[in-house]
Amino acid sequence: MTTVLPVLDLGSDLCCAPIVRDAMSAQDAANLALKFKAIGEPTRLRLLSLVAAHDGAEACVCDLTEPVNLSQGTVSHHLKVLVDAGLLTRSKRGTWSFYALVPGALDNLADILRTPAAQ
Amino acid sequence: MTTVLPVLDLGSDLCCAPIVRDAMSAQDAANLALKFKAIGEPTRLRLLSLVAAHDGAEACVCDLTEPVNLSQGTVSHHLKVLVDAGLLTRSKRGTWSFYALVPGALDNLADILRTPAAQ
Fold it and tell me: Where do the HTH arsR-type domain residues begin and end (chains A, B) (predicted)?
């Protein structure tokens, strides 16, 4: 079985079929790997978790520097990687940037990892 | 909310609580990031998918080099990263190594990514 799946847009939240159902095309793998690489770093994983656990599932950079004990510049860099991967949104209000989870983005990754029998 | 979750073994399939339920401890984040980093690379994602889609959900290195168009040495290196991350098992039979999915490993990652409302 080496079915080639449809090539989907890089930013599509609907990419891709479950990983264990069919062999994955090179294009799908490249798109997906970007997202997993973004969360394959401890600080970014913690930042994602901190944003999600924050009141209203939205957090200001100013809320995130102390829990991870890093400078605002470093935290902003990691948050940008998560935004570029389509996992967080950024909105600017006044002097601060606020970050929130992209609805469905993590659930979509979960669906791709889940084995069909467990769904 | 900055609950510190229990620190679990690196190789435990039960690590960790869902990412969006509580802020994640530094230790949990480090353990988990290793697994996501392993699949945050297009060739490794394809190899994982190829192994899963292969008959009996097990594949020989000799089955995997052609689909990804890479040398056996490169493919073996990527497979080792997936084994070290606890996602594949390796068993040697005769002159070949066979790789299979670790039961539940991908489902465990899926559970961690899933938002509680979608469970």
Answer: 24-119
The conformation of residue B116, written as its DSSP 8-state character, comes to: G
ipTM of the complex in this document: 0.79
Of residues B19, B45, B57, nearest to A48 (C-beta): B19
Kindly report, residue by residue over A15-68, the tens digit of the pLDDT: 566 666 667 888 888 989 999 999 999 999 999 999 988 888 899 999 999 999
Q: Are A112 and A106 in contact (CB under 8 A)?
A: no
For residue A49, give the nearest of B23, B2, B110, B7 by alpha carbon. Answer: B23
By residue range, what is the domain housing residue A58?
26-114
Flag whether residue A36 sits within 8 Å of chain B, measured between CB atoms. Answer: yes
Instruction: Please report whether residue A6 resides in a domain.
Output: no
Residues 46-105 on A with a CB inside 8 Å of B are 46, 48-50, 52-54, 57, 67, 101
Cβ contacts below 8 Å, chain A against chain B, sum to 146
